[in-house]
Amino acid sequence: MNNNINFSxxxxxxxxxxxxxxxxxxxxxxxxxxxxxxDFKGGTLLEVRIENKNIQIQDIxxxxxxxxxxxxxxxxxxxxxxxxxxxxxxxxENKKFITDLKNSISKKINSxxxxxxxxxxxxxxxxxxxxxxxxxxxxxxxxMLFYIWIRxxxxxxxGAIVALIHDVVIxxxxxxxxxxxxxxxxxxxxxxxxxxxxxxxxxxxxxxRENLLKYSKLxxxxxxxxxxxxxxSRTVITSLTTLLALFSIFILGGEILKGFSFAMILGVxxxxxxxxxxxxxxxxxxxxxxxxxxxxDDI
Amino acid sequence: xxxxxxxxxxSIYLILLLTIFFASLNFKDNxxxxxxxxxxxDLQGGSYILLEIxxxxxxxxxxxxxxxxxxxxxxxxxISFNNFTVSPNSITFTIDPKKQDKFKNLFFKxxxxxxxxxxxxxxxxxxxxxxxxNKTFIKFSNFGLVSLNNAALKQSIEIIRRRIDDVGTKDxxxxxxxxxxxxxxxxxxxxxxxxxxxxxxxxxxxxxxxSKEDGFGSEKLILSENKEELTVSKRVVISGxxxxxxxxxxxxxxxxxxxxxxxxxxxxxxxxxxxxxNVGRRLAIVxxxxxxxxxxxxxxxxxxxxxxxxxxxxxEATDLALLLRSGALPAxxxxxEERTVGPDLGKDSIDxxxxxxxxxxxxxxxxxxxxxxxxxxxxxxxxxxxxxxxIGILTILEATLTLPGIAGIILTVGMAVDxxxxxxxxxxxxxxxxxxxxxxFDTGYNKAKITVIDANVTTxxxxxxxFIFGSGPVKGFAVTLGIGIITxxxxxxxxxxxxxxxxxxxxxxxKYFKL
Lengths: 299, 515
Prior knowledge:
The complex is a heterodimer of chains A (299) and B (515).
Chain A: H1 11-31, E1 35-36, H2 38-41, E2 43-50, H3 57-65, E3 72-76, E4 82-87, H4 97-109, E5 113-121, H5 123-151, H6 154-177, E6 181-182, H7 184-214, H8 220-252, H9 258-285, H10 290-296
Parallel strand pairs in A: 1-6
Antiparallel strand pairs in A: 2-4, 2-5, 3-4
Chain B: H1 6-24, E1 38-39, H2 41-44, E2 46-53, H3 56-76, E3 81-87, E4 90-95, H4 100-107, E5 118-119, E6 124-125, E7 127-132, E8 135-140, H5 142-167, E9 173-177, E10 181-187, H6 192-200, E11 205-209, E12 218-223, E13 229-233, E14 238-239, E15 243-250, E16 257-263, H7 265-277, E17 283-287, E18 290-293, E19 305-308, H8 314-326, E20 333-341, H9 343-396, E21 400-401, H10 403-433, H11 437-469, H12 473-506
Parallel strand pairs in B: 1-21, 12-18
Antiparallel strand pairs in B: 2-10, 2-20, 3-4, 4-8, 5-6, 7-8, 9-10, 11-14, 11-17, 12-13, 15-16, 16-19, 17-18
């Protein structure tokens, strides 16, 4: 591949679009919020398999109507006869209530019921898990910042961190817009996105630095263009193989991994975009030149 | 970068063979070294239960035991007191302010202090004393609370262990988590609901007489069987502490399941005396504030054994006996988090996980071969080696593989080629300007090295943070992702580089150098 794409021509347009996407995401996160799963909200999640495949979702709903479960949410999950039930009550108060619930559902819909998965999280633990998740993401961002700060000049650090925040905010924003459930595995996905996006940015930055030293007369945007072009085939190939693996999990890996792999797919696409269109333009704004490198080396 | 000493090549392939050997152990059931990748609860089915002890009632209970000794101490030293009350976490009374110092000295006496225990571990007293005008407040000191909490937690863990061992689940894990919590992991259990009930029961057993009239020394309790309300004396005849054994049995005459218990010597004596004195009265058998049964005492029971019948099923009798044998929990326990996966879902998850791994792997392999031809083949060989090494290291560490862990492996497959791609793309650039192929490959590897390391450190950092903060399945993801990065670096920089060097050095006709 011999590329000579004028990326920097689109920097301004891309930056406006990115900014718009970030603002929309923040508005959604602020006003609509995230659809937290039981991990972060507390409550109970049941994955049930009903023997009698004729049972419809409304039968399950009505079988739960009389119970004191709080806000109940039932949805089809995977194969026919499989449902996911979520409600506010948790096992804190009554240790026997899951057994009781199973018997009551089974009696009302007149079919054997298999509770394939039960997750119940009390309010205290869910608050702790949420706090842990936020801490982990914040810590990951700081660790990346620190690493970049050691390895590169500060202008690069800012570029990288702006790109990372861009990726995380938009990924979560899309989860908010689509009301997709956010649970522990989504936090894992976000952390991996942070790692992946950083990885992608670092490869381009490495090249930019190398080219800054090689060509002393070129302008910053020319250098970024050359560097992005030189690394482009690598960027595309790695994103493709990673996406191949992720789509394979998304389509074939079962219902439980769907949310996780969806978040990762979003993250890989956004992360690849941001390395080129967010991280690199930041260097332009700071007018990073060979001098910047030589001067900062003393610090 | 293309030259390898013989010893280096030997050690690279030795390491590879060793990890492959460990990876292969997973396919045999009882292997020599007994090493295997453990399946997480989400894959093999089982329960993860986080329990939290509630020490509030215990604090009150302990304070209650101080009431009589404090009153005795006051009387003995001729300190008159008024308005003696016990609230959930303090004792208050009023004494003459002039006598406060005297009481203080007695209360904080170092030697033979039966009321206020001195905790030598912290060099502090268990109870605190405070005066407010003529009022006296006694409560647990922070150190007293900590030591009470720790003792209760330790004892609870012990009792929970006994209960779980008694149920007979295989490979349970019981761990302390923080200062109030107990983590219980039960792989592959059939009936999590039953175990949960057994874990959560305080199982405080007491034998008390049913009294005729209401009064200060009695309380109203419900008889489980027929919801009858009974007035039961607060005085405990014997408690579960006096039990040495309990077994489920069938009654000889009615064939009803019941629990036969044996008392220790002290308990037997007391039980004998009370039953002799109270023939004809009803004796309430109370478990956690519910009366299981309240039979009439027909004749004195002096043998130190007795039976409890309460219209149980045999399962209920078995569970009650188990609870009585294991002893009472010192404080109530709540389930604050539970995750249970049935074995059939676990099986489905493994199947789906492995299937998507194979498909993802094939896709990447085909893609790499199409894109890079012979060097794609090299990259693919190193990818297979990478995967085998990853499984081998997981086996050596006896790590736990979870469903997100499998996702981590698939992701590693997708991202592992990155290192090789970085290198090959670099070599291709070098080939444009460099005449000597060997030289181009050499500089390609060299220049890409820094980028490859930079790029992988970032993912490794993310994995490390995830490992520290994640729990259960998510931790499994961090493990495979982290180890995957290390095996990726090894396979790219040793295995793939060696194979590349063999091709390049033997490719005199420059048949393959076109990337």
